[in-house]
Amino acid sequence: MSLPDFSSDATLAKLDGYLADKSYIDGHAPSQADVAVYEAVAKAPDADKYAHAARWYEHITSYEAEHKDLTGDKAKAATLLAPHFADAKAPAAAEDDDDDVDLFGSDDEVDEEAERIKAERVAEYNKKKAAKGPGPAAKSLVTLDVKPWDDETDMKELEAGVRAIEMDGLVWGSSKLVAIGYGVSKLQMSLVVEDAKVSLDELQERIADEVEDYVQSTDVAAMAKI
């Protein structure tokens, strides 16, 4: 049999009640039973809360130098206190029962709650985004170099053939001839495209197919978002 845990207010209150009409744990003189409880209590109880226990603790402290020489059996302390502390064990049992109760929920429950909140926030964001309507289309300003076969290529026909190509989201801009050597000039054209609608690779393929009599090759010289 062991002594109660005196670190809680409940057990100190029980000890205080036990000592209300006693000067010692066992009998009418300090003994090893007092030493056992003294060591278990470990520090002076609050005199405002536990006047009897504090008075007893201070009294046994005065015998500290003689603790080893006091008569009696330390084990007797637990036997004497057991009946007085019997009902103090009930709350402990209740605390054990509380261990079986998951106060905070399982990790799965926490994850499910987090996912639910996340889904609600995403839905709210999408709702607000839909209410605002689509934003402006992303566009790019492109400089396209169109090279002829040779110096005898009719550049006006070449340009007319290129401009004849129409695509949704494509707007042709200005153009100029740029000399590249040996009497040959390339046609440098500016155009604006909607990024989501116009593929520059597809545009270059169409130029190669539809204006093949005039165009040797095309290159994207520059491109910038606008």
TrEMBL record:
The keyword Protein biosynthesis applies. Residues 103-129 form the Elongation factor 1 beta central acidic region eukaryote domain. Residues 139-226 form the Translation elongation factor EF1B beta/delta subunit guanine nucleotide exchange domain. Keywords: Elongation factor, Protein biosynthesis. One of its GO terms (cellular component) is eukaryotic translation elongation factor 1 complex. The keyword Zinc-finger does not apply. One of its GO terms (molecular function) is translation elongation factor activity. It comes from the Eukaryota. PANTHER family: EF-HAND AND COILED-COIL DOMAIN-CONTAINING FAMILY MEMBER, ELONGATION FACTOR 1-BETA. Belongs to the EF-1-beta/EF-1-delta family. This is Elongation factor 1-beta.
